[in-house]
Amino acid sequence: MSSDLHVDGVTKHFGDVRAVDDVSFTVEEGTFVTLLGPSGCGKTTTLRMIAGYETPTTGRVTLGDRDITDEKPYQRPTSMVFQSYALFPHKTVGENVGFGLKMRDVPSEERDRRVAEILELVELPGTEDRAIDELSGGQQQRIALARSLVIEPEVLLLDEPLGALDLKLRKNMQVELKDLQEELGITFVYVTHDQEEALTMSDEIVILNDGRIEQRGTPAEIYESPRTRFVAEFIGDTNLLDGTYVATDSGAYLECGSVEFPVEPNPAAESGATLSVSIRPEKVSLEESAARNGGSTETDITLDGVVDDVIYQGNVAKIHVRIGDSELISERHVVNSTDLPTPGSECRVRWTKEHADVLVE
Ligand SMILES: Nc1ncnc2c1ncn2[C@@H]1O[C@H](COP(=O)(O)OP(=O)(O)O)[C@@H](O)[C@H]1O
Ligand SMILES: [Mg+2]
């Protein structure tokens, strides 16, 4: 029997605040799914409802065929790593890690054995008698993880677990946590507001905005095919071109001030609507000779412009180009910094139609 996790039409009100608004998603057993969104969008509340620390106002949470909506946290095969770690500062590492086993009446001999095993797994073997406040932030994070894993949950819920660590340690831990998830084969539901972290670690990303799901998909789907302006701007950098979307029998295009160019037709967009098109900077290539206008074909868009600014960042450069009333950024890898164009020079930008996403809202 599969133990996919289903969050089904879940809404949570706190008084007048609708923290989570009709959210549904499935997490396939053994996968790593991230809830991503800005502060206040409902990530923690969603996780706490899966863990059993909050009850949904409406909606159900099921694991396989088992409806766990009304079960207490300790009755569920889930375990949560809290943002603040929530360790007992005056208890030892061993007492902290063994706490969940004690609550479940696991005999002390077995408890000691399982605590020792899990401390090995998080690479802090033999630290049972250490005091929590002697440990570094990174070590405390591992203890919080060990304490959640020791009860052998089917689903591990992690609320911004790396938020308190410095950047280098955080990057290392991202890779370690992902490896650990693959090794253990258990389901991870991970919460972060950090888009890079989500792209690095996840099999799938669920993007939340103001209590609702904005889009879900693999990291590549989310990055390469954002459906809304919110997603396009929240994940990575992008160029947004605003204009009038025109759909005809022979194809669609965007009228954008003095320029227009073909776009992939979007059935969700109405002809004549004012909307935005998103093009990732690395999808925009730049040539330094300005050919005469009208170079676009049905699939290759070519527009003449003028280099406004060149921002050198070591391995990459961002070249700002003025095209009519719009500005576009072209990003490229830098091999020789002497090869970069000079501001004021004429140029041509080019992208493929499939890389321009018509955003519906
Ligand atoms: N216990 C609570 N009482 C009242 N409002 C809450 C409570 N918990 C969360 N909220 C509100 O619900 C919204 C979502 O919060 P939260 O789930 O913590 O978001 P996130 O984790 O994405 O930052 C916010 O507006 C927050 O202020
Ligand atoms: Mg939160």
TrEMBL record:
InterPro entries: AAA+_ATPase, ABC_SmlMolc_Importer, ABC_transporter-like_ATP-bd, ABC_transporter-like_CS, Mo/tungstate-bd_C_term_dom, P-loop_NTPase, PotA-like, Transp-assoc_OB_typ2. Keywords: ATP-binding, Cell membrane, Membrane, Molybdenum, Nucleotide-binding, Translocase, Transport. It is an enzyme of class 7 (translocase). One of its GO terms (molecular function) is ABC-type polyamine transporter activity. Residues 5-235 form the ABC transporter domain. SMART domains: AAA (SM00382). SUPFAM superfamilies: MOP-like, P-loop containing nucleoside triphosphate hydrolases. Belongs to the ABC transporter superfamily. Sulfate/tungstate importer (TC 3.A.1.6) family. This is Molybdate/tungstate import ATP-binding protein WtpC. The lineage of its organism: Archaea, Methanobacteriati, Methanobacteriota, Stenosarchaea group, Halobacteria.
